[in-house]
């Protein structure tokens, strides 16, 4: 099977980068007969650098815009429609609906963007992948009328390079000495955002000054959205009885973080909300026992030895820490943990491959191709302006602007989408030529405009039928079906779009 993995580049969300790279690492653990052919797909210079740095995880690296010509069976992930490929089977990815549970953490425009993009991912493609059961349940509550048979859960695991499982006690001792960390400690590896709830740990230690425990927190104490939150943590850390039991590492390297994780006796995860916690998965891999906030996703993850506490009750965590530290649970050796985790990762890889095969089989270009989804979504969203809190004129303009960005390098798909919308008999159809087609081409490079003009529909019906017959006799594959649908779209292209552009 041929799988395309889209390499993200977003400095504000490196979790997305690591998510894709971990999928590649995970797929490499499959036996030779099950391993797919992996292509890293890139659409920005920074993404190309990331792909090149991790080239050993893929069989090839190619531009994302070439996805249709690479004979791919499955392209993943797309967190919004502009990240979906044209002419290849693909699946959306909805990590979580944190924007619905904690809207105060997101500006209104970001809430609207996620709502509109996730909604189309939930109903448009051949498959939509969710990181947790909670994410599926949240989506079902928001859109009870949507079909759900194509919704799939993929619990992504932590995947480490081979060297990670070698004895690294020397590295751990070196890093511990650098930060003056004692031999026995618990660890927290989260950004210091308010919903990560570090404050509860510090408050629990302040409430139990006699509690003999040391907690290491990696990262820097900062949350630009809520500066008062960081100040509250620093205020408690000014107390000597709290400060001597807490180590704040500030920003450290990934290798330093992993060295500290390897040496910990257990972990604490106090978050108020998680999509699917990478930190919990990394702790699971090492067989670390831990204390977790009692939220649905943590119950769903539930690594062995988990103890749950109320994330809104300081005494609940303080009591959990007291019981946990009274008799620290044993943890397996690195070798035993690695062997057990290898089985878990391979199982996750097979689940991912099942989703890929499901998507490739279900993919119908006329319904699920990115162009078809955009052509259907744009008129529907236009009609909905003002009828839903998140569907404002401004939100629609941003949504359409994102679509134009993805079409700027795909003039043939722009022509097909313009044709489909023009034939839709919708209120948006009369405006799409100007708002979508001409607005996209106005900012496209000259060579892309020329490709749009050169893209000519099959005008002879006999020639068209002959082409379709040849395709129908070809091997029945997602790519063959995509080519057939492409010819049908091409035949329906409206000449007035091209004539208007020439004029």
From TrEMBL:
Pfam short name (any one): Glycos_transf_1
Keyword Transferase appears in the UniProt entry: yes
InterPro entries xrefs: Glyco_trans_1
GO molecular function annotation: glycosyltransferase activity
Keyword field contains Transferase: yes
Domain Glycosyl transferase family: 183-324
Keyword field: Transferase
Recorded superkingdom: Bacteria
Protein name per the record: Glycosyltransferase
Organism: Henriciella algicola
């Amino acid at each position: 099977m041929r799988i395309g993995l889209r390499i993200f580049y977003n400095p504000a969300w490196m979790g997305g980068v690591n998510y894709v790279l971990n999928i590649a690492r995970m797929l490499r653990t499959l036996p030779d007969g099950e391993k797919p052919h992996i292509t890293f797909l890139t659409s920005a210079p920074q993404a190309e650098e990331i792909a090149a740095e991790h080239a050993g995880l893929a069989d090839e690296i190619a531009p994302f815009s070439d996805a249709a010509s690479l004979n791919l069976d499955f392209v993943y992930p797309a967190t919004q429609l502009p990240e979906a490929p044209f002419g290849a089977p693909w699946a959306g990815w909805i990590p979580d609906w944190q924007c619905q549970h904690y809207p105060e953490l997101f500006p209104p425009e970001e809430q609207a963007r996620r709502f509109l993009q996730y909604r189309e991912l939930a109903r448009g493609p051949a498959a939509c992948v969710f990181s947790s059961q909670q994410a599926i349940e949240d989506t079902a509550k928001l859109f009870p009328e949507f079909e759900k048979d194509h919704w799939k859960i993929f619990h992504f695991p932590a995947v480490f390079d081979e060297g990670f499982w070698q004895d690294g006690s020397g590295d751990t001792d070196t890093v511990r000495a650098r930060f003056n960390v004692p031999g026995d400690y618990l660890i927290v590896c989260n950004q210091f955002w308010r919903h990560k709830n570090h404050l509860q740990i510090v408050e629990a230690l302040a409430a139990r000054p006699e509690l003999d425990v040391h907690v290491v927190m990696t990262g820097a104490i900062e949350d630009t959205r809520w500066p008062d939150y960081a100040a509250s943590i620093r205020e408690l850390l000014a107390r000597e009885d709290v400060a001597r039991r807490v180590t704040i590492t500030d920003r450290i390297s990934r290798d330093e973080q992993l060295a500290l994780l390897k040496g910990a006796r257990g972990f604490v995860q106090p978050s108020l909300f998680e999509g699917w916690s990478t930190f919990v998965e990394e702790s699971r891999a090492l067989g670390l026992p831990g204390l977790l906030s009692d939220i649905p996703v943590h119950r769903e993850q539930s690594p062995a030895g988990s103890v749950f506490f109320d994330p809104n009750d300081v005494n609940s965590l303080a009591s959990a820490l007291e019981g946990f530290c009274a008799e620290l649970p044993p943890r397996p050796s690195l070798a035993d943990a690695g062997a057990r985790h290898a089985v878990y990762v391979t199982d996750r890889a097979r689940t991912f491959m099942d989703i890929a095969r499901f998507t490739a089989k279900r993919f119908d270009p006329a319904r699920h191709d990115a162009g078809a989804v955009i052509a259907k979504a744009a008129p529907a969203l236009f009609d909905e302006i003002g009828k839903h809190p998140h569907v404002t004129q401004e939100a629609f303009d941003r949504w359409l602007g994102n679509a134009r960005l993805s079409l700027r390098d795909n003039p043939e798909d722009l022509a097909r989408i313009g044709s489909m919308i023009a034939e839709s008999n919708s209120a948006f159809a009369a405006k799409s030529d100007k708002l979508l087609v001409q607005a996209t081409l106005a900012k496209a490079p000259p060579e892309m405009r020329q490709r749009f003009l050169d893209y000519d529909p099959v005008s002879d019906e006999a020639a068209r039928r002959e082409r379709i017959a040849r395709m129908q006799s070809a091997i029945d594959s997602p790519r063959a079906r995509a080519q057939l649908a492409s010819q049908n779209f091409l035949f329906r292209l409206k000449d007035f779009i091209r004539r208007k552009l020439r004029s």
